[in-house]
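ok so heres the complex, two chains, lmk if somethin looks off
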Amino acid sequence: MKIHVCVKQVPASNETLLDPVTHTIIREGTQSILNPFDAYAVEEAVRIKARCGGTVTAFTMGIPAAEGILRRVIAVGADDAVLLTDRAFAGSDTLATARTLAAAIRKKGMPDLILCGKMATDGDTAQVGPMLAECLSIPHISDVAEIESVNEEKCTVRKMTDDGYVRLEVRLPALLTVLKEINIPRLPSVSGVLRGEKAGVGRMTREDLGIDPETTGLKGSATRVVSTERPVPARETVWIEGTPEAQAGQLKALLREEKIC
Amino acid sequence: MLNGLEPGGVWVYAEQGTDGIRPVVCELLGQAVRLAGELEQTVTAVLVGGTEEQAASLATCGADRILLAEVPDEALPDERTHTEVLERLAEKYQPAILLLGATAFGRSLAPRLAARLGTGLTADCTGLEIDPETGLLRQTRPAFGGNLMATIVCPERTPQMATVRPKVFPMPVPSLNREVRVIRERIDATEHCFEFLERLPSADETDIGAADVLVSIGQGIGGAENIALAEKLARRLGGTLSSSRPLVDSGVMPYVRQVGQTGKTVAPKLYLALGISGAIQHMAGVAAKTIVAVNTDPDAPIFGYAHYAIRCDCGSFLRALLEKD
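and the predicted structre for the whole thing:
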């Protein structure tokens, strides 16, 4: 079983990102982590490998420092990792990102299964997974809560939908995006961390991928961010004081006034 | 003119769930009418598999025309099939804008379709405006867990695609007796993502995203007895019980009830947060009209978001609130 996992480096906290004076994004000095959802995808890949044998390869696109999360992924059981890094990739929107990842995956050889986290916590779009599947012309199942069985031809999954859970069968190769309820990711062992530190992380540039500069990065992105601003502050907080009984009574009156209850 | 449908126009994908057309479709049609008005274009609803009756309900919400794609019955909508259908319709009719609900299915279909059409897609928009100079759709969305509002355009590709969460926009006032223009399109889709096996009976099928009132509990709720009181309050208010992440992680509450960045985004009229500290990751999932917070810690971040702040322990407050009446 050949399994690929796509991961992303995200800021550890969304709070420290804005300069309180200039309202611009502070990237310097912000701590970066593996996107929490991707940890579930990595864990699931490592578990499938333990059951069925095979290899797990992690991919990420990012700045050179994103190599750190790939070493972490190797520390918890991935066999190898590829960092897509090039100035030409900078400013990619979700589709340009998916196209670039697709080129790298084609270059490395199509796997049986691609696993992605449901979404990244910085962009919150949940778009790259399904877009990547489309770029590779393979099926995808999003919001997978459980992989019940898998072999090289097909896999059976439990998926969360808007109307409850369903069981589906999907032919491989396919891409799955996973929910946090799928597993509890392991922590790296000391020997794992050492393996991660020693592992060679492959690097690929735009030239290595052989893709047109018009299809990646800012140039290859259909969307443009035209402005960013701080959200309009919420209305003033009204403190309701007094005994619990008085507070309860006041709240009821206020909600009635607002015609809520 | 193709079947009386000029190129351009604002399209809304009419997603269907187990209970028929989802309410978010109507909410989107309300916005589509406003946007199309500014562009002096028409509003089209695209219904993939559906009835004349459903088509009529879309007209009531503001659609000028309904494209009814005839496809074989599906137990569950398939992203690849719907991508193929929408691709063919988009190629034929060339819409300027395509809006989809940011439901679990919409968030899975829209990116696949955008990749197929090679166009831009903006997820979870909270504001949609037409730029008066360029005529482009200005799509505003929260980023970085709601710390930043970004306005995005898609200047060179069409359709300009956006998804919008349910309940972000109001239901439009229904306009009855509108002329319904239904254009049937037969499309033999050949692509599929999956084979449907079965729907699973779920212990908890609650959709917290659909609730108008959420009574939401966090680590500070203070024990099973108070959780029972919170549930009672939720029932009394005609609402639903939801939770923050720690109670889900510790197994007290099921994942389907989790509000926040790693759970569900909710937009109720009233969000009553009981013993929730209000970390940014939690608040990123809350787009409520009115937020009431009950917490013993006056410095809890939740009070920075709350419209009504109540410093009290949850048990005492719940007992007081349930006693009156």
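quick notes: The longest helix of chain A spans residues 36-52. thats all i got rn
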